Every structure is written in structure tokens, then in C-alpha cells.
Amino acid sequence: MVIVGGGVVGATAAWSATRQGATVLLVDARDPGRATDAGAGIVSPETELRDTTPNHLLAAAATRFYPVLVDALAADGAGDTGYAPCGKLVVARTDEEAGWIGGYLALLRDPERAAAPADAASLHEITPGDAREQFPPLGDVTAAFVSEAGARVDGQRLERALLDAASACGLTIEHRPVATLDDVPAADAVIVAGGAWSPALVPGLDVRPQRGQIVHLGFDDPTCEQWPVVAPLAHHYLLAFPGRVVVGATREDDVGFAPVLTAAGQRQVLDDALTTAPGLADAPVLEWRVGLRPVATRGYPYLGAVPGHDRLFVATGHGASGLTYGPWSGAVVAELALGTISAGDRAALAPFAP
Amino acid sequence: MVIVGGGVVGATAAWSATRQGATVLLVDARDPGRATDAGAGIVSPETELRDTTPNHLLAAAATRFYPVLVDALAADGAGDTGYAPCGKLVVARTDEEAGWIGGYLALLRDPERAAAPADAASLHEITPGDAREQFPPLGDVTAAFVSEAGARVDGQRLERALLDAASACGLTIEHRPVATLDDVPAADAVIVAGGAWSPALVPGLDVRPQRGQIVHLGFDDPTCEQWPVVAPLAHHYLLAFPGRVVVGATREDDVGFAPVLTAAGQRQVLDDALTTAPGLADAPVLEWRVGLRPVATRGYPYLGAVPGHDRLFVATGHGASGLTYGPWSGAVVAELALGTISAGDRAALAPFAP
Amino acid sequence: MVIVGGGVVGATAAWSATRQGATVLLVDARDPGRATDAGAGIVSPETELRDTTPNHLLAAAATRFYPVLVDALAADGAGDTGYAPCGKLVVARTDEEAGWIGGYLALLRDPERAAAPADAASLHEITPGDAREQFPPLGDVTAAFVSEAGARVDGQRLERALLDAASACGLTIEHRPVATLDDVPAADAVIVAGGAWSPALVPGLDVRPQRGQIVHLGFDDPTCEQWPVVAPLAHHYLLAFPGRVVVGATREDDVGFAPVLTAAGQRQVLDDALTTAPGLADAPVLEWRVGLRPVATRGYPYLGAVPGHDRLFVATGHGASGLTYGPWSGAVVAELALGTISAGDRAALAPFAP
Amino acid sequence: MVIVGGGVVGATAAWSATRQGATVLLVDARDPGRATDAGAGIVSPETELRDTTPNHLLAAAATRFYPVLVDALAADGAGDTGYAPCGKLVVARTDEEAGWIGGYLALLRDPERAAAPADAASLHEITPGDAREQFPPLGDVTAAFVSEAGARVDGQRLERALLDAASACGLTIEHRPVATLDDVPAADAVIVAGGAWSPALVPGLDVRPQRGQIVHLGFDDPTCEQWPVVAPLAHHYLLAFPGRVVVGATREDDVGFAPVLTAAGQRQVLDDALTTAPGLADAPVLEWRVGLRPVATRGYPYLGAVPGHDRLFVATGHGASGLTYGPWSGAVVAELALGTISAGDRAALAPFAP
């Protein structure tokens, strides 16, 4: 099997396939701007709402799959993935926004509306004072709720752990550009997991790059690795890792393959950061990242066999939810290619066919 | 019957009682800052969500009652109430807010969640371009939906029409202060509808004044009286009357009985106005208003007989929803005092007992 | 003598002429938007710099004339003019602005550069802390200086006092519109002091209305009548009268004869007020005013005999400096018309000929 | 001779001394945050005003020295210094600021007020339209003037060119920390040019670090290397080099030796950049720099022999003007140490004695 793309989708596909005994070559162009490298790392499908797309099937699957994956990687002795079940804190800043907190909770508690319904007891309103206690740099908050099921992950570490575990099972990795499918060796199956760059390999995919700029701020507090993900209703996310708080990201369409940081983008991210959390004003800027999310115009990913091509599969188009949905997508498309997929997963995949 | 307070609640009580043949004296202190005089005039219970209070009973009742009231006043030959079924336009300004539009619609379409469920067909998303066509001064919008059942009313005109119609049925009005209930003549029933000033007359009510500042901007466009109410998800409302656009209002707690306009309050209202609708920049300022909403700390109004007092009734505490809920509340408390209330209305009133 | 226009220029002309025994009719159209009624009231020519116009002659003359005028009015028993030699406080808000304080002081101390050079000792830098002590609502300040010679006046009161004193000397006042000079009776001399409306009466004047919006905020502090005028380097002025702080004003060209308050104008004034003086946030808004300054396109006023007309004089076009320069202009043009002008004043007037 | 510190001051001292035949060892600790590496590169003493310090002597000397230095380096065959006589454009953004343009020009044209008086003809007002033509990304401007004598330089390149030229004349460079003067070899003279770190070597200097954060934005326009330095009256500077626009810098006192970029600092720089020049919104961020300026509390540098020490000299404390004044300071202190200084330069140096 050949896998093109070594981001979180391709890496999980490689991990899944090698664990099942397949011989796998992963070709990774290491394009600057790969979404996995820049993503903030929020894993919180239980706070997503159903929309008119089948994405809720991914949300539900991801909810089940993530802890299994993290445990399996730990059992494999793969390194730290940066995953932590830290909870998620949704905050309102204005009186108008405060009115939304109750409505949002009502939707999430409704199994017909939540994308991945969580235990009702794991969702509860907290006072603004408690919110600031949980995330000390926060400024004024008018209302807040907690979702205990929220988690965060470090995309770069997760990818590293997956590839290490897969390499231990025999994965071969080549780093080189792949302009067309003629650039990869013949194989019993080819999986394209090339993110925003996938349409060059699989014509017909309506996937476009959407730029995200994101900042890592230093915060020297031993408790901060336990802080929840903060989701302001109308501003950028904040989440904490040991020694740092990450804020972002912009959503910039129609900028092409330009994984560059811009004056206006950085300003917006910092404005959002300091509006929500003025306690970060003096925080040192450790790092700026920029990535190109693969956004499917149809609103949900392409997962499955490519019609008209023999043994060609694709897994991309997860937009801003790649770190949440991508691992399951990669793993299951690999099972599809190997023919080891379960009936339930096959049914869940069906609506995402290219 | 004596009614204390001539705002929208007291005026509807007087109208209801006189139409039923009762002899009614309305005593009105005409305190500056009366909420009815300042309220923007939004009547849109169908876009409210249920919360943990019984307010949805008022929303449902108001939905049924408003058209009946307006028709009855027209049949009485009372003057214009400023009521118009103009629809309501909910708009998002950021990408994050855009994500809420679908969720909000889902809640409103769910009869278990909407406070006053409307016909699903009357709620529909529209494009940002259509939103600006419906309300031309709007700036950038990222998503929007329309509720066709939304309406607006002019509080001052509605009160005038109610009192005129009641006067034609024999209502007596006295304008003088009422410091205690000893200041009103003995009567078979006394209804206190004194808004934020009610606790002085009915000890035990936990009702406090909440200040709202609001602006009226001139807009010389013959179509503007048909424009919908605009509800940005995180900023102040805008609504149009012939020749004017009204924007507001602040929600200022803990300022006491100080119905004054302030520098920061005016700035906030104008910032909200011009952020949502930059097309209003050159609009002349016709009028600033300020009112004190009667906010019940328990989160829902006091409606019904006062325990421990013979034949004393109260109707107040509607907070920011006085123009929406107040007419039904006033009318039905009058029926309660007269003993003409229906079984259904009596049941709906029950949770609001003082 | 007939004087058209009863603002500060016309009123001083009337006062000057009647005191000299002339028989004077003042015709005042009382147009809404008269600049005198709205002006903030800063009288601080000693902080003006020379430019390429002859305005410094007015500055110097006004400096000498103002105390004389105020004393004379007091001796006449005319009422309070609101005049107070309260000093002026120039403040910088940013580091960049702080760099200007020293340069500004250097210019003002240079008799070749200052428009109306003051005693060097009356100009001195003070610390930001002292600045806040002098004007308590001030926010952060990076540098400041005081000009002890600064003063403020109440335009409406000054006009009232001038007209009262003139009436006591026999002035006749008529309030009626004056569309053309045919609307005024024949007289030995006609002085047009009609502000922005003057061009209709004296063709050839290139004077246009410039709108200014201004706010009066209540401030209940017994010391505030002694507070200095505050001039931020890059924002609107603030000045205090008993019980109130006045902030403004906008400078809006090309809006025609529209003395209306606007949404954007009010927002700008309040933003400036609260940026400079956040201590005014909760101050009640007592009053909004709007006036149309008569701005001469050539950059300096029209003062003197109108060429080609017999015995027709004009005094207008003072722009934003009307309350500062206007009294001397009015008084001296009256002397010019009466033939009682001194040689020095005649020379000072010469460059301002229409 | 031993020189401690290899920033622009130490490098020029080394260049000057080696050209005169001295044997020189330069010891450079290469501390992160060296001001020379981060400085924007404005060389425009002719737009500085005199203050109460002797800094105008440095301004005048720098004005004469810079072209000589640049020519000498060119003659030496040293590489590009990034120096260009691009002119400087001073811009006002508000009406209030516009009032300052004339006053500033008047000061600069006055030989008693300008720090380094330029030819009057080289200073002239231009229209806002012309300002935008000279610096296309500029936004709204209300007034502007040009100083043709303004220049810019690249601090890193200048230092490189100086050290290359000095090395060609026999300079020895060692990179290692210098905690005390005992760490440097005995020499006939020691010059400390250690910037903000100098007080550790020369007790008694009241010099402190002031942090500056600065951004380099890409701008792909062949003309941009000819654009003038832009100095908004109340915001950060902008200047252009081939392919880039540099904006900054913050002035942060009391942050110690912490050459870190911060969330609030980056936000302020970007806000200033985009407020003045909205045309930079989409410009890619090439680089962020941060430096610690050596600020002398007394307001002017320490230049000369250290009292009580034999043959110990110091040259530091130039604050935000190091790239402008530093080269002359370094060169002349080297001459002082060698005994080759002219009488005129000795007199100019006198007020700066430690």
C-alpha cells in the first residue's frame, strides 16, 4: 500500500495499515503549511451541533475512537501525543452572548441536535468567577459552561507518535514531492491524504486551502497544562499546553497556497487573544504558526474509493476539524483499502464517498 | 377598581377592566424613566428560547394575544399603535457567530425548546446579500435568518391608544404621586402595575430598576417602515419606524433610580449601531431615551394576588420583555381581579404568583 | 446703524456702538445652529502658533481685549459671562505625543512663533500626576504643560451680557429673518455679522459652514469650575463649568446648512471624551449642541468695509476661533463704521479687508 | 586598545581606531537583544528638535559624519550598509494633528530650535495625495511634510561593513561574555560600548534597558526601496528596504533584560502599522525583532573618560537614537582614547562626560 501525505490523516492510515500487517510506503512532500503542524489541537466533538451534512457521523466516531487510539499508542510505547482530557469551557463576554449559553447547552443535551451527544451531567453552567479560576488569564465573562468531555492534543506530537509506532511495525517513509500519481510506485492500493494539495492527485475533488494563523504564548504556570480549552462564543479559541497558551486561528479563504503570516492576521489573533484573556498581555510570543486547512466546498470530507480509478482511495477535506476527525478517517479508509473494515464503519463512511 | 401605574401593563389592565364594565380609576405618577416610554418596541416572542423559568407561558400567551389586542383597538377606533408585523432578521457578523445561526434556527424549530414555537416555514436562512437588501444600512454580515412572525410596536402610542379606548369606556385617570397604598382610595380591588417603583407599594417584591439607553436616528427612506427588526447575535437591536431607526438598549444594573443618559452608555449604543449598520453614520440623532426596566431577581414577573392582602394584585417585573409580555399580563390580571379569567389563563398565571 | 446677526460678533459690535452713543438696530434671525450658541468657550490665544495668515494679529488683539471687555461688562452690571481665567492644560497621551510637549512649549516661548506671546513664566511643564490632580477625570497622560493665561467663557452668557448692556444703552433688537439687505432699513452704516449665513447678504464672501457637535456632561464636584481647559494634542478639547464638563467639537466640512447631531458625530465626541478622560464614563449627558462655524476658505476672517458698497461692513469667517477673536472683531468693525477706530486697530484690521 | 561591545558604537570605534593604525581587540558578548540588531534604521537628525539636553551637539555631528562614514566604507570596499538618503515624510492623521505640521516645520526651520538645522528648502509641506503617492500603503492623511535630508540605514549591515573594514585593517574579534573588566586583557586603553549591559562594567552609569519590538513586513514593489521614512505624529515609524517595510518600535521601560516579543507588544506594533498604512494588511510578516535600547536616565549618553579609572572610556546610553548618533560617538571616543581628537570634537564631547 502507498499512502501520499504524512499529516494526521495519512499517519493514522499508515499506523492502522501496518498494525494489520500491510506493507506500507508513506510518501510525504513536507509542504510548508501542512494543516496538522499548525492546528491548535482541540478535540471536542461533543460540543459540535448537527448541521445538514453527515459530519455528525464523524463526530460520533471520533468520540469513540480517540481514547482508543491514545491508549493503543501508549501501549505501543509511542511517545507523548500531547493529548489531555482537560475539558472545554465555553464563555460569553457580553449580555447578548450570555443569552446564548443556555441555548447552546440545550442543543448539546438534545440527542437529536448534538453531533456527538455527551452525558448530560458532563455539561454544566458555571459562574463567571469559576470560569476565571479555571483559566486565570480570562477577562470579564458574563456566562460560561463546561463540557467535561473536551480534550486537546498536539498535532505534531500525535503525528510523530503515529509514525514512530508505524515505523516499528515496518512502515517505510520517503520525503519527496509528488506532483502526480505517476510519481508513486505501483501498489495494491493508493491512499491520497494530501490535505489541501490532494486535488492535484485526485482530479474532481473540490477542496481548497483555507489559511489559519495561530500564536503560541509562553505562560509559566505549573497548573496551565490542566486548564480547559476556552471557546469564546464570538472569538478565537484558547488552549493551554505545558508552559504555553495557544490562540487562534484565522479562517482566510481565497488566499491560495500561501502559508504566510500576515500583518492583519497576526493582529486579529492577538486582538482576539487579549480581548478574551487580557492576562496574556505580557506573555512572551513563543511561536507563530500558519497552516492551510483542506476545506471541501460541499461541507464535508471526501473519504473512500475514487470512482473510475482502480484501488485509489482518498481521505481529506476535514476543514477546521482535521485534528478531531482525521485520525478515525485515516484509520478507517486504510481498513477500507485493506478490506478489513467493519459493517458499521462502512455504513458511517458511505455518505463521504468522493 | 384602582390601578396604580399607567405604563403598558396598567394601561392594558385599565382597558380590559373598563371594557368589561368595571369602574376604574388609574393613578399614574408619570415618573421620569418609565420603561414603556423608552422601550424599543420589539414584539418577537417566537424567537425566544425556553429557559428554566415559566416565561415561555407568557411568550405563548403574548403571541396569541397581540394581534387580538391590536385588532380590538382598531375596532375601538383608537389611534395608531405603531404595531407592524415587519418580521425579524437575526444576523451574524463574524465567522464564529455565523456558526450560531443554524443552531439558533434548530432550537426555534423545536417545539420543546422555542418559547413560542412558530410555523417552521416562517423561519428561514437568507443570504447576507438578501439581509442587506432588507435592511440597507447593514454592514458586513456573515449569515442571517428571518422570522416572519416578528413584529414591532411603539410603546408610547400603544399606551395612548389603550388609555384613549379605556377613557371612552369611562376610565378615570389621575396624575399624582403614590407613595404608599394609603394614597389611593378604597376599592374593591387594587392592581399595582408600577414597574420598577412597585416594591414601595407591595413590600416583598424583589424587583429592581435596570437602566436602558436608546437612540432614535432619522432615516429618510419611504421603505424603512417595512424594514424588519434586526437582532445581531452579539450587539444591540435595531428597528425602524417611519422616518427613523431605533437602536438599543444598554442593560445597566445597580444604578438605582437614575434615569439619566451617560457618556459611556451613549457611546456603547452608538458603537453597536455603527458596527452593525455603518450606513447610519450620517443619520441625524432625533432623540435619546432612557428607561428603567423592572427586573425581577427571580427571573420572571410577579403576576397575581398579593398574599396576606385582601384584594391586592400586582403585575410587574417583566424586565426587557415588558412591551412583549406586558399587555397580556395587564389584561389577565384585571380579569383575575374581576373574577372573569378563563381556566386556561388562570393556569398560565399560576407560576407567576407573588 | 444696523447690525445683522446677534452672535458674539454682532453683539459686541452692538455693545461697542451703543456705548459710543450710536443709535443701533440689531436684526437677528436666530437661525438654529448659530456658532456662538454651541461653541465650547475656549479663550486661549496664547497657545496658538503663527501660521502664514494674519490671524496672529487677531490673537494679539484678543489677548489684550478680553479682560478689558469682561471688566467693562462687570462695571456695566451685566450678568455673568462665564469667563474664568482657569488656565489651559495641554496633554500628551502616547510616547510619540510626549515628544511634542517640549517642542510646543519652545514655539510658544518664541515671540516670532507664538501668535500671542505670553510671559514665559506662565508656560511650564508639569508631571502627569499633577495633570490628573488638576483635572481628575483624566486617564493616562505621558506629558503635560500648563499655560496660566488660558481662559474659558460661556458664549451664550457672553452674548446675553453684551446685549443686556447694549440694551441699557438704547439698543433695539428685532428677531426676524433677513434674506437680503433689502430686508433691513436704510441706515448710515450696515454691519453684517451673520456667521455662516453672511454670504447671502454680502456676495463674494467665500465663507462656508463647518459643523461642530459638542457634549455637556454633568460632573458634581465643587472644584470643577476651577479646572483648566484640557487640550489633548490629538483629540477634542475638554473644559469645565460649574457642574459640567464640555467636550468637543467635531469639524465637519461639506455638510451644508445642516445643524444636526449625527450618530457618527456623537460617537466621535464621546470616544474622544472617554479616551482622554475615562473618569467621565458615568457622567450624565446634560446636553448636546451643534453649531455651524463660519469658515473662510482663505483661512482668515473678513473684517471691514465691503468694496463697491457704500457704508456696508462685514465681520465674519472666524472659523473655530469665533469666541476667542469675535469680540474684538465686532467691537473694532463697529468703530470702523463709526469712524472712531484708532490708528493701531485700523492697521491691525487692514489685512482682513473683504 | 580593547573595545567591549560590537554594536554600532563599538564597531565604529574599532573601525576608527584600526584605520589610525591602533592594535585593537574587540570583545563581543553577542547578547540576545542587542539594540543595533533590532533598530529600525532611521537616520534623520534634521527632524529632531533641541531640548534641554546637549543632544543637539550629537545631532549636528551625526549629520556631518554619516555621509563621510558611508563614503569611507564604500571606498574601503566594505559591503552594503543599507544606507539610503530616501527622505522622511511626516504625516498627520487627524485634524488636531494636522495643526501640528506647520508648527513642526516652523521649529525645524529655526536654527535655534532644530537640533541639526537643515537647508530650509529641503523641508516642505506636501498634499495628502502626494504623501500617498510617495508611500502607497498609507491610509488617510490630513497633512504632511517632507524632509529631503532624511535617510535610513540597516543596523546589522552597517555593523557588518564596519567590522569587515576594520578586520581588513587588523582588528581582532573575540566572541565571549565579559562579566567584569577583569575578563579583558590589560591594554593601553579600554572602551566600553556595551549598550544596556555597560553598567556591569562601568559602575555608576545610570543606563537601563528599554525594550523595542519591531516588525518586518514583505512588500513586493520594486519602488519601495526609494520610499521615504514615514513618521506619523502619534504612531510608530514605518520605513522601507528592498522588498520590505519595517514598523516599530515599542518603548517599554521597566521590563529588565528580557528581549522577548510579547502579545501586547506585537499587537501595538501591528495596530500602529495598519492604522497608518492599511495597505499593509495582507503583507506577509517576514520577521519580528526585539532589542534593548540603552537609555540613560539623565537623558543623554555617556561619552568619554571614566573618572577615577586610568585609561577607561565609555560610549553608551543613546536610547532610541543609537543608529543615528552611535557611529560618530564611537569614532570620536576612539580618537579621544588615542589622543587624536580634534579640538572641535573634544568640545562637542565635553557635556557627555560620564
How is the secondary structure organized here?
The structure is a homotetramer of 354-residue chains.
Chain A: E1 2-4, H1 8-19, E2 25-28, H2 35-38, E3 42-43, H3 55-75, E4 88-92, H4 95-108, E5 123-126, H5 128-134, E6 143-147, E7 151-152, H6 155-168, E8 172-175, E9 190-192, E10 207-218, E11 229-232, E12 237-241, E13 244-248, H7 263-276, E14 285-296, E15 302-305, E16 312-316, H8 322-338, H9 343-349
- Uncertain stretches of chain A: none
Strand order of the largest sheet of chain A: 8-2-1-9-16-15
Mean pLDDT of chain A: 94
Described by strand count, sense and barrel closure, the largest sheet of chain A is:
6 strands, mixed
The helix tally of chain A amounts to 9
Helix vs. strand class of chain A: alpha/beta
Distance between the amino and carboxyl termini of chain A: 20 Å
Query: How much of the polypeptide of chain A forms β-strand, as a percent range?
Result: 15-25%
Q: From the alpha carbons, calculate the radius of gyration of chain A and give it in angstroms.
A: 20 Å
Biggest interface, chains and residue tallies: C-D, 23 and 23 residues
**SSE order of chain A:** EHEHEHEHEHEEHEEEEEEHEEEHH
Shape of chain A: globular
What is the oligomeric state here?
A: homotetramer
Q: How much helix, percentage-wise, in residues of chain A?
A: 25-40%
Number of strands of chain A: 16
